Amino acid sequence: MTAPLTTASTDVRIAAIDIGSNSIRQIVADVSPTGQIRVVDEMKAMPRLGEGLDATGALSPESIEAAVTAVHRMSTLAAQLGAARIEIVATSAVRDATNGADFTSRVQALTGRAVRILSGEEEALLCFRSALAHFELGAGRTVVMDIGGGSLELVLAKDGLIERVASLQFGAVRLTERFLSPRVSPRRVRALRDHVRDGLKRAVPVKDWRGAQVIGSGGTFTNLAGIVLSRQQVSVRSPHGTRVTRVELEHVLDWLQRLSSDERAYVPGLNPARADIIVAGLAVAAEVLCRFDPQDLMASAFGIREGLLLESARVTPVVADPGVARERSVREFAERCHYEEPHARQVQRLALQLFDALAPRMQLEPADRRLLADAALLHDVGYHINYEKHHKHSFHLISHADLLGMTPADQIIVAHVARYHRGTPPKMKHRGFAQLDRTSRDKVVKLAALLRFADGMDRGHVAAVGTLHTKLSADALRVSVTEAQGATNVRLECWGASRKRQLLEDVLGRSIIVVMPDGTELSADDDGDGE
Q1: Residue 375 CB burial class (10 angstroms; 0-12, 13-18, ≥19)
Q2: What's the whole-model pTM score?
Q3: Is residue 337 in a domain?
Q4: Structural contact between residues 329 and 267, judged by C-beta atoms closer than 8 angstroms
Q5: Mind giving me the DSSP string for 315-326?
């Protein structure tokens, strides 16, 4: 979730350690009473506890030793960081192993902390709790799937309420050993998929669930998103929220299964440590999509650990309808940056008035309105660092925020639009802007043009302007300004907008005339795109 920039006195510092079949991961975070999570530190180890488990039924001495050492190291770090609670859970490998109890006893003897062995259902519910906090699940049907090293967890929910939970032994490590060892081949992958397909048919109904929204949690999905984004040459801080179509998933799976494990280790966007098990994970994901027939899936960067944090903090995420979580997340991020709300709201209101009037002419889509609204609300958050170059600071803060309900691609566009609300307009010599695809660059320029002009219309930060009325002709755009109730003068605002009209003029291909309430027209020579 979105990380607050300062820690409130009511926050609780909690450490969550997830002992999985493939890896052991710890997150130490400050959790607020409303469920906001600020990550303090993270640690990861990959002892592969599930390796060889199917053949022997037991955890190997080598993996036990490595795992115990890793958990002890994580527990020590959590204590040193002042965690009030340290929660340790174990999943499929420890749950299934004949010597699982011996392992947990060793951990407790060394760390002084008990290990809670999760059932498959408990594992699934923690993943769902995390998804509920990070996605908008309030309307329609949703399938949340988590692919670990030893098992696949599925939660089927309608309007945010759980209807069915299933835990199947379709983990990436388990299936790799059973079907794809010693080497991967298309024939072996087909056998794996047939096995998973049969199991899904027996365990999961599809009536009423075809076309449901699908959310994928776990390393399989963050790596899939990383690969897809790399292929699209999209650079983002986090793959969270990335949408991957079924066709893209099948293309990536087909490509990776034809590479050797060594070759897969060099695939951009793929963690080399996962190169040997990624094919099995993607094959399971592909079969789940075949079962439910959605248009795409959304990758979640949050899972059991975040669910455990929320559970430990006794926070029950609020079920969010479409758009609500995003709006709340953007607003809360702005508040944590101590934004000037009256100015931000005024600029947002005026920018959206312009959008509604000019979007058809500018060939902007309805979804672009949300991008402009978010950029307008956040355009000055860079003040949180300092005034000088605050537009660039805004870009940095927005692009690195965890904003719910927003894809990585949308977040980058919002960050760029906010960055260009003042100063130099977008140019190809700006590396970040140049890295965007042509469609995104075009969108940034148009939305930034609207935002710049709207920002000028609140030059005095007093919300003096009431409404903007536009009239587009062959050679000019006339913008008539009315005063807000109680305002007596909008001369400064009209002047400010006139100074910041150049980019919008370039986009529209015609001059802009600002008409004041008394009929005076401002169309003098531009002083440059001012502040």
Answers
A1: buried
A2: 0.77
A3: yes
A4: no
A5: --PPP--TTHHH
Q: The domain containing residue 169 runs over which residues?
A: 121-309
Q: Which of 260, 280, 309 is the last residue of a domain?
A: 309
What is the helix (H) or strand (E) element at residue 476, kind and residue range? strand 476-483
| Nearest in space to 179 (alpha carbons), one of 170, 464, 417, 429 | 170
113-118: long-range contacts at Cβ-Cβ below 8 A with a sequence spacing of 24 or more? 113/75, 113/86, 113/88, 114/88, 115/19, 115/71, 115/88, 115/89, 115/90, 116/87, 116/88, 116/89, 116/90, 117/89, 117/90, 117/91, 118/89, 118/90, 118/91, 118/304
> What confidence tens digit (pLDDT) does each residue in 383-416 have?
988 888 999 999 999 998 878 778 888 999 999 9
| 257 and 186 part of one domain | yes
Does some domain include residue 314?
A: no
Residue 258 lies in a domain: yes
Residue 156's contacts (CB-CB under 8 Å, 6 or more residues apart) are 141, 142, 143, 162, 163, 164, 165, 204, 209, 212
| CATH assignment of the domain containing 172 | 3.30.420.150
Q: Which of 330, 301, 350 is nearest to 414 (CA)?
A: 330
For the domain that residue 49 is a member of, what is the CATH number?
3.30.420.40
Q: Is the pLDDT of residue 102 over 50?
A: yes
